Amino acid sequence: MGNSSAHETDGGRRPQQQIPVVVLAGFLGSGKTTLLNHLLHRSAGSRIGAIVNDFGAIEIDALAVAGALGDSTVSLGNGCLCCAVDAGELDVYLGKLAAPETGVDVIVIEASGLAEPQELVRMVLASEHPGIVYGGLVEVVDAAEFDDTRARHPEIDRHLALADLVVVNKLDRTADPERVLALVGSLTDRAAVVPATYGRVDPEFLFDCRPSEERIGQLSFDDLHDHGDDQCDGHDTDGLGGSGHAGHLHTGYDSLSFVSDVPLDPRRLMRFLDSRPEGLYRIKGHVDLGPNDPRNRYTMHAVGRFLRFYPEPWAPADERRTQLVLIGSGIDTEALGTELKGCESDAPHADEHGMWGVLRYVQGSEDEPDPEPCGG
Description:
This protein is of the alpha/beta class.
């Protein structure tokens, strides 16, 4: 029962944090580039590795102060890296961006407007690079043109069914935003559906932002724009569009922090995870499974329907407890907290077969499921 997918540090005790790889898809004009630019401007000190199919289409104003790092790779103002690649080169550039010396915290692949997102997801999941982990498929749709887009590209229904997170963009340009949101929601398979204007999605929904005071070195996008507190109050002072009525960025998602000093029962935990509700996008943290594996704590990474556990030895100084953060859109945090509380068990002895469900999601285990984000 090992973890073949993580680098070892601290004398073999703790694996390094893997870099999430987020696939950003959507048809031409949906607002993918606007959303990516928004993430770059609001990275809060995090370093983003951007892989872009349509390099000529991206509009990143800080390229004026950027320097070339190599073939098709550009260093952006806050240490972000941008690559222009073909699908066949994807794994090569994932490896380059995931190298420890880049200091990248998240990799975002902006797919071509005509790309097949399922194939990009398969390539990410098939990568054997130990430093990355699948971070979800984000599908961006143009609310104002959604009906026409479906008529021209009926495959969008299939793309929405595959998505882990759907950003319904340009809601301010449609006469009936509630109808569009409801229609998009009906076409997804339990994905979180987030309304947006000007691609403004809180980065914390997609990846863990570094504390801003940790940012050192290169000039950042945040330093290039005197936007005051618009990161929190929704006012537009940076040319990204919108106005104060666009709303607070953090209103796009709900979060729950769950802490327990009582071990969780693995069977109950897997029942909870197998039935996790519509709109629950991310789960992160670690779990104490008590006598079912007294040697290890289990770090959990879930995005959409993708799930992985990473067993790590407890250190003598560790306080044995479960600590999880759940992030979603429109989720009932109180109900989820109650369900997780129901997973607690103070049974003194292990369930002989209780760990089977958990071990199926430990990378490298014999019973690990095929690397499919959506069950096929």
